[in-house]
Design a protein that fits this description.
alpha/beta; 262 residues; seven-stranded mixed β-sheet; 18% strand
Length: 262
């Protein structure tokens, strides 16, 4: 067989391999890209189904207490430079609550409609992608990273990247706080989670805790939060087994709280 024919075949195979690699790279990028939704529509969606600003302000109180207690445990010099990043800050409920507690925080929000609303109430908001924001932060430059109802919008690959970046930018002893819909509540996992078209996949609490551990965090805690409004009434009636009441009316969200090792 002529040498030129062999060379042509090799060149053809190499070209096909390069084309396949490029196609796979494009497919991976498309899979990891966030779902795009009109910002005005998404603002309406959150108002309708996540809750009013006053309701969300009530829900974030435990996180404000957690962060403020950590800040107060530090020395005076560290308290003066204490910094929190609220990733995907939305309308800015947590930012406002932190400001009332005299905690300095920066919100990060890619949705300009929500970022404008948060900034309009006097909060500091970076209108940018959360990964661009984290990439620009120096190692060990933040005291707390908070992401409430954010991680379920990301592909698994980007979730791992988010946790790795959070571990990098946090100071030793810094706090990580994540909140996400709880699929242990069957109504959430089978129905309510899917109302938001930008949600990708519910995360089981055990999986998220393992991911946080894998990223290097320690003292990992799980909080199950916000049961359905009917939960107490139905539980007191006792007409359903307790486990069935939990499955249908139990906590709609859960939070994972963790510390970066000293």
């Amino acid at each position: 067989m002529p040498e030129s024919t062999d060379n042509d075949r090799i060149a053809n195979l190499e070209a096909r391999i390069r084309a396949l690699e490029e196609a796979l790279a494009n497919l991976s990028a498309e899979r990891d890209a966030p779902v795009e939704v009109d910002p005005v529509f998404y603002r309406l969606l959150e108002e309708r189904y996540r809750g009013s600003e006053s309701e969300v302000r009530e829900r974030v109180k435990p996180y404000v207490a957690e962060i403020a207690a950590y800040r107060d445990s530090l020395g005076e010099a560290d308290r003066r430079v204490f910094q929190v990043a609220d990733l995907g800050c939305g309308r800015g409920e947590l930012l406002a609550a932190l400001r009332e507690a005299e905690v300095t925080a920066t919100g990060v929000e890619a949705n300009p409609e929500q970022a404008r609303e948060a900034a309009g109430s006097g909060q500091t908001v970076a209108v940018t992608d959360i990964f661009d924001f984290l990439t620009d932060r120096a190692d060990a430059s933040l005291d707390a990273v908070v992401a409430l109802h954010l991680i379920e919008h990301l592909s698994f690959r980007r979730q791992i990247t988010l946790l790795a970046e959070a571990a990098r930018v946090l100071k030793p002893g810094g706090r990580l706080i994540l909140e996400t819909p709880n699929p242990e509540n069957l109504r959430v996992g089978a129905w309510k989670f899917h109302i938001d078209p930008t949600h990708l996949k519910p995360l089981a609490p055990e999986l998220l805790m393992l991911m946080v551990e894998h990223a290097g965090f320690r003292e990992i805690r799980l909080l199950r939060l916000h049961p359905e409004p009917e939960y107490d009434r139905i539980a007191k009636q006792g007409k359903m087994p307790h486990h069935a009441t939990l499955l249908l009316y139990g906590p709609r969200d859960y939070a994972v709280l963790a510390r970066k090792p000293l």
